[in-house]
Amino acid sequence: MQNTRNTAERNENYKLIEKNTKLKLAPDDQTKADVLRMGKVVFRFESVGSTNDIAKTLAKKGLAEGTVVIAKEQEQGRGRRNKKWISPSGGLWFSVILTRKISPLIPLAAGVSIARTIRRLYQIDVTLKWPNDVMAGTRKIAGILTESSSTPDDYYAVVGFGINANNSYKSMPTQLRNEMISLSDLLGSEVNIDQLMQESLKAFSQDYAKIVTNNLEDIVRDWKMLTNMLRQPILVYEDEIPFEARALDLDSDGALLIQTKDGALRRLHSGNISIRRVEI
Ligand code: BTN
User: Fold this and answer.
1) Are residues 191 and 256 in the same domain?
2) Contact 100, 65 (CB under 8 A)
3) With a threshold of 0.85, does the pTM exceed it?
4) Predicted pLDDT of residue 13
5) Protein residues whose CB sits closer than 6 Å to any atom of ligand 1
6) Same structural domain for residues 222 and 237?
7) Which range of residues forms the domain containing residue 261?
8) Same domain (yes/no): 71, 163
9) Given pLDDT bands bounded at 50, 70 and 90, which one contains residue 277?
10) How many helices (H) and strands (E) does the chain have?
C-alpha cells in the first residue's frame, strides 16, 4: 500500500508535455469508434519512471479505456519477471489502459498486434516468442508488460509496449548487446515514432476488440501463425532454472503446452517462465 502511494505521488511530479484529446466520433459509428477509441487521450512525458506506473495511477483515478501514456525515456522501465527494461530516448515506450475485459490473452494479442504492425510497416519478418516477445531472429525487438488489478474497487489492465525503434543495440550495456536489436539497426535509417505508435494502437484496438467480443480463437490462431517455436526444442527457465523441453501447442487460454525430456506434458503460464529456442 505504501509503495502504491509513493508511486502515485512520484507520478504527480513528472512533467507532462501535452495531454491531447483527439477527434470525437458520431455515436452511431460504433465499430469505428471502438477501433479508434485507443489513443483518444494521450499523456506525453519527456521522462518518467515507468509509463506503466503512470497508467496504473490514472486507471485507479478512473481514466477511460484507451488512455495512453507515452514517454521519450524511462528511468525505471520494467520488463517481465521484474527485469529492468532499459529505455533510452529513441525507443517507443507507451502504456494503454483497458477496462472492459481482463483476459490472459491480452498479452498475446498485444504481441500479435506489434508483430503484424512491424511486418506491415517495415517488411521485417519478425516472429513471436512465447508469451509475447517480438523477435528479429534471436534478438528482441519489442516486449510487452501487462499488469492488471481485479478487485471490487479497481478493474483494469495496463499494457506496456516497449519497442526498440530508433535506440541502437550499440548503446546497450555489453552483456545485453546481442540480446536486442532495433528497427533503425535493421533498416539503416530512423523510423517515424508517431506513425509506429498510431499504427500499433490501431492494430491493438482491433485485436483487443476480438477479446471483448469473445473471438478468442482468432487470437490463438494469429499468434500461432506468427511464431516459429512450436514443435521445436526449447530451453525453459522456471524461476531462472533451465530444463529442456519441446513446445507442442498454444492452449486456448494462452498457456504453452510443452513436453519435458522425460515425456511429461505440462502447461506453462507466463509469470515466472522464460523460454529460449534451441538452435539445431
Ligand atoms: C519484457 O519484454 O520483459 C516487457 C518489456 C515491457 C517494456 C515496456 S516499455 C513501456 C512500459 N513501461 C514499462 O516500465 N515497461 C513497459
Assistant:
1) no
2) yes
3) yes
4) 63
5) 50-52, 74, 77-80, 83, 85, 87, 93-95, 133, 143-145, 160-162
6) no
7) 233-277
8) yes
9) confident
10) 7, 13
